[in-house]
Design goal:
alpha/beta, binds flavin mononucleotide, about 200 residues
């Protein structure tokens, strides 16, 4: 079977962010899986204008646009900031719309506190639904992230390997299922798909 394309979006541009350790480690785990290819996008690399916003400026970000167009799903690594998500993450997600439709999204929550970003993930679910993304139900949570990686980004708790493996298994299942649907079940979003569906 063709490899799935599953990019990772790191959702904070904060100096000293711990979430970068999580994102880089997870990309390493994903690169070990033969079923998928991935690449890391970092909101800090998006030169977002102060005076414009949304899909009207997506052509300023062709790598993001073209990768999400081809992708089968997306992993979002988000820190928890006052129980919410960073504005820069929302601004990057809002650059696209049709490109996300009927693709999987899996969440990785990162926090200094005890809840591993559970609250920020819950708050993102209604938002990504409006983007047309389909949410997996296996999150990956990093509570007390400052104790989970060393200063060089080395993972200190090997229990995360099994958790990441389960998280990726679920993302792969969702992504393959949705890819099959996009390719085979015709809809207004997939007019070229193989077979018409009687509603
Ligand atoms: C503006 C701001 C708000 C934060 N709010 C929370 C919070 O609500 N809950 C929590 O556990 N940690 C909170 N933190 C700590 C972050 O979760 C912590 O820095 C963690 O390492 C993930 O963010 P980082 O990638 O920016 O380091 C907050 C940090 C910032 C900068």
């Amino acid at each position: 079977m063709d490899k799935l394309l599953l990019p990772v979006l790191l959702g904070t541009n904060r100096k000293g962010r711990n979430s970068i350790h999580v994102a880089k480690w997870l990309v390493g785990e994903m690169e070990k899986r033969p079923e998928m290819e991935t690449r890391l996008f970092d909101v800090a690399d998006f030169d977002l204008p102060q005076d414009d916003y949304g899909t009207g400026i997506k052509d300023n970000f062709p790598e993001w646009r073209d990768t999400i167009s081809k992708a089968d799903g997306l992993v979002i690594v988000t820190p928890e900031y006052n129980h919410g998500y960073p504005g820069s993450l929302k601004a990057v997600l809002d650059l696209l719309l049709r490109e996300y439709v009927h693709k999987a999204v899996a969440f990785v929550g990162v926090s200094a506190g005890l809840w591993g970003g559970a609250r920020v993930i819950e708050s993102m679910v209604p938002m990504v639904r409006e983007l047309g993304l389909a949410v997996t139900f296996s999150d990956l949570n990093f509570p007390k992230v400052q104790n989970t990686f060393d200063a060089e980004g080395k993972l200190l708790d090997p229990n995360y390997e099994k958790r990441a493996s389960d998280f990726l298994d679920e993302l792969i299942w969702m992504s393959r299922t949705l890819r099959w649907g996009r390719q085979n079940l015709r809809s207004k979003f997939h007019p070229e798909a193989g077979q018409a569906v009687e509603n």
